[in-house]
Amino acid sequence: MGSRASSLLREEDIDEIKKETGFSHSQITRLYSRFHSLDKGENGALSREDFQRIPELAINPLGDRIINAFFPEGEDQVNFRGFMRTLAHFRPVEDNEKNKDMISGEPLNSRTNKLHFAFQLYDLDRDDKISRDELLQVLRMMVGVNISDEQLGSIADRTIQEADTNGDMCISFSEFTKVLEKVDVEQKMSIRFLH
Amino acid sequence: MPSSVYLCLSRAVFLVCFVNPLIMQGLSEDVNEIQDHHHHQQKENLTGLPIVTFRWHHVQTPYLVIIWVFVAGLAKLSVVELSHHVTSVFPESGLLIMLGFVLGGIVWGADMAQTFKLIPPTFFYYLLPQIILDASYFMPNKLFFSNLGAILIYAIFGTCWNAATVGLSLWGCYEAGVMGDLDIGLLQFLLFGSLIAAVDPVAVIAVFEEVHVNEVLFILVFGESLLNDGVTVVLYNVFDAFVSLGGPRIDAAEIFKGIFSFVVVAFGGSFLGIVFAILLSLLTRCTKHIQIIEAGFIFVVGYLSYLTAEMLSLSAILSITFCGICCQKYVNANMDEKSVTTVRHAMKLLANGSETMIFLFLGITAIDTEIWVWNTGFILLTLLFVFIYRIIGTFLFTWMLNKFRLVPIEVIDQVVMSYGGLRGAVAYGLAAMLDEDKIPEKNLMISTTLIVVYFTVILQGITMKPLVQWLKVKRAAHSDLKLIEKLNNRAFDHILAAVEDICGRIGDNWWTRGWNRFEENYISWLLMKSKARKNRDYLFNIFHKLNLEDAINYVSEGERQGSLAFSRSDEAANVDFKKQFGSEFADVMPNIMVDVSNYELGIEHFSVTSIVKDTIPSVSLDIHGQDRKNAMDDINAHHLLQQHLYRSRKNHRHKYSRSHFSINQNEDEVQEIFQRTMRSRLESFKSAKMGVNPAKKITKHHKKELMHKMSNGHTDSTGHLYEDEVDRAVGREAGAINSTFMRDMYTMGAGIENPVFLPDMDSPAHSPPWLMETEAVAPSQRAQRRLPWTPNRLRRLAPMRISTCSTDSFLMADVSLTLEEHDEQPQTDSEEMRPVFD
């Protein structure tokens, strides 16, 4: 099945994806076969249902948010290019790439982009701010039901207060970056893709 | 009564022997003495009918055995009951060994010789099997098999590496003249190296369980130590054969035969274990009418697999290991629930008991002048090499493994792993089994082994916990300073887990999936009762859970409204909150304090948020007060978050426990998340179907609604309940079954009756809303695509076991919908039942 799937992928596509995302050739073909096996509709694009069929995502508290992150605004389908673009955020930063950053602009797996991916999971209305409401929703998804709304509310307030520097009771992306500057995002937001 | 009998009795009561007369060679003298007396007595008594006679020698062996068991039990009790200061520093195993020193001292003081020793046959035939069986029977299977590659590498190559390097280095040092004059050749050194290479599962688990390590590390060390016992014994036998063959007669062919026999013995043993596991599973299929004794079969067949392997000179340890690992799933499903409980408790009892005995006797054995031969060079060098090569080996093999592993093993884990190379009773047992004719320095080897065991179990055991803590503290110190960091770190974990799942870290593995399907279709069919297959149904469990949860909700609802308020413990955190704020704010906001007192009966309603909101933005005159309050607030919030954030897969604790089976909290968490996800998907699905909301806003909308629902005990969602059934009804009537899904349905095996689904589906009370809405709203495209999930097909689905480890996405998708259905039933019930509590 893997070989059949990869044959559907044209070489020039692979090259383009390689350039855009930094994945290796074998990683791309491997992920393509995964993409293909997820694509139950066999139309070359994944729908939300395709993602929702992955059993582990159902038990991931942020599962649905992450699924949403794969879809460009207002669209219901994601093709292989888009799929790879999202996954590229999680490619580890390699040593030899650190120099390359300077020349070819920001790669998808840079620290800022990794952070931005996380930021977008909170920012539902995409106004580049995490409001108290948005934060509360994520908190509610991530904590058990034993914790009451009041407690959660105070946690949310506290969290915003920690990050909020300009006093608008929202966390902007720059504030988000600033408050997380000590966190080793490069390592925490990277997975090893099989070669 | 003769005084020697008294003496003997009191000694027996005091000292107690463990199994069989072999242990008590030294006692035979006493025995003869007693028998003499006895004959004497009988002669005297011949003149009249004896009313009672004292017949010590009749019961001697079992009596001594059982008294030793009793003493071991008391020893364990006293060790466990020791003050926390002691137990928090010393590992239990180390304490038992030290207690063994004391007991051994008493025996030695009474006899001037060590009458009770741990001898190899006792150890290998009566003490070890149940420990191994227990460890393998409770092995977290999925974890074990997903790390099997690494475990095998460590267990096979790691052990060979340790044996070879330790043996060769010692030989090198010996040749260099460090050890003085010893009668040991290269082969003997290698033999010694192989026996000292056994990392002991008993010692390792005992220590690792007290130090809480992450589950991958745990399974690596645990699996390695379990399998490497088998490997060590095999290696030992191979070298033992070489030693008996003698150096000059070993040529290439013999070495090749040695390697070949190593492979055959190891894999033959494993295979035999699997065969016995199949037999056992088949057997438990038909024990329905003898439930009282079915639990016994596991022990009997497990032991049989051990002995059979021993008889065929295959690896007995590997045999019983694989027997336990392979049978657990089917046996647990086939047997009655009570029998499963019995097995679990009996297994723990036996394993814990013999573990206690082993450690105790390891201590007792030491108090014996006979075995101690001191050779500073040999002993110290062995300690050094054992320690060093373990570290080198671990790092070497981990370095190689990390090239292939998706999640590399971290350096800290490697340190803990190499430090966790505790040697235990297996090494001692093998050393005691050495043949004195072939190995003149046997006693030196025994004493060295004992020292290595004491050194690793006691010293490394004691330092393990501080080491792990120290490493952890170092790692955690620079992060988690702020709430948002804490939250995001957890979020990152979840995100990574999700992306890994999307990339198919496990799921894309075609052979895993193929195996799962094969397993579901054929093996389960063969080894499991059909009833068991049904009961094992994941859906059923979730349904049960949901019902339970709702029941709890009713009760808590009732509590809140009645006078039973806050009898439940999870409100303790709120009480804390109240106290904190109460004391901090008493002077600032007297009016709120009034509120607090008003809320005595319903602390949950007490709004912390309002206070925080009011005070923080406002300028406070008392700066110190503000700081202090912030600190308090901080501590509370951190504490709460820490306690309640869902853990990501990585942070889940291991599931094997040496002495008890903890109810896994993670399971509950997983269920909770799963239910939520399903609810939210249902919501979004419904909104999409109704075509009211544009796709993007749905998420936001339903999430909010969901939150609301959560806090209100799911009361207000009943209104939408029937909507989803509409589709199913339509689907059933139309019979429009999408071929894509049909294909998968047919691979799933025979249908079963699951009454659970029926009443809800066919209840006439539900029909009005269906009819109304089907006509009013034309299902959207998405809804139509889901039509095939009709109740009929759900029933066919039911026998499938769908768990989180299932990699078949189809199944899961189907489950998700079925689950939603289950989801509804309790809620309907809740409406009907509410008046009771009102």
Describe this structure in words.
Chain A is mainly α and about 200 residues long. Chain A has two domains: about 10-90, Recoverin, domain 1; about 105-190, Recoverin, domain 1, CATH 1.10.238. Helix content of chain A is about 60%, strand content about 5%. Chain A contains 13 helices and four strands. Chain A is globular. In chain A, about 45% of the residues are buried. With about 850 residues, chain B is an all-alpha fold. Among the domains of chain B are: about 120-470, Na+/H+ antiporter like fold, CATH 1.20.1530.20; about 480-540, no CATH class. Helices cover about 75% and strands about 0% of the residues of chain B. Chain B is built from 37 helices and no strands. Chain B is globular. In chain B, about 40% of the residues are buried. The model of chain B is unreliable at about 1-35, about 475-480, about 535-540, about 565-630, about 650-655, about 660-665 and about 690-838 (pLDDT under 50). Classes of the chains: A mainly alpha (about 200), B mainly alpha (about 850). At the A-B interface, helix 3, helix 4, helix 5, helix 6 and helix 9 of A face helix 21, helix 25, helix 27, helix 28 and helix 29 of B.
Topology diagram in text:
The complex is a heterodimer of chains A (195) and B (838).
Chain A: H1 2-7, H2 11-21, H3 25-38, E1 45-47, H4 48-52, H5 55-58, H6 63-69, E2 77-79, H7 80-88, H8 97-104, H9 111-122, E3 129-130, H10 132-142, H11 149-163, E4 171-172, H12 173-179, H13 185-188
Antiparallel strand pairs in A: 1-2, 3-4
Helix pairs in contact in A: 6-9, 10-11
Chain B: H1 3-15, H2 20-23, H3 28-45, H4 56-81, H5 84-89, H6 92-111, H7 120-137, H8 141-146, H9 148-175, H10 186-196, H11 201-210, H12 215-245, H13 252-285, H14 291-311, H15 316-334, H16 337-366, H17 376-402, H18 411-419, H19 425-432, H20 442-476, H21 483-502, H22 510-527, H23 530-535, H24 538-561, H25 572-585, H26 590-598, H27 608-615, H28 623-644, H29 665-690, H30 695-711, H31 723-734, H32 739-746, H33 758-762, H34 767-776, H35 781-785, H36 791-797, H37 809-837
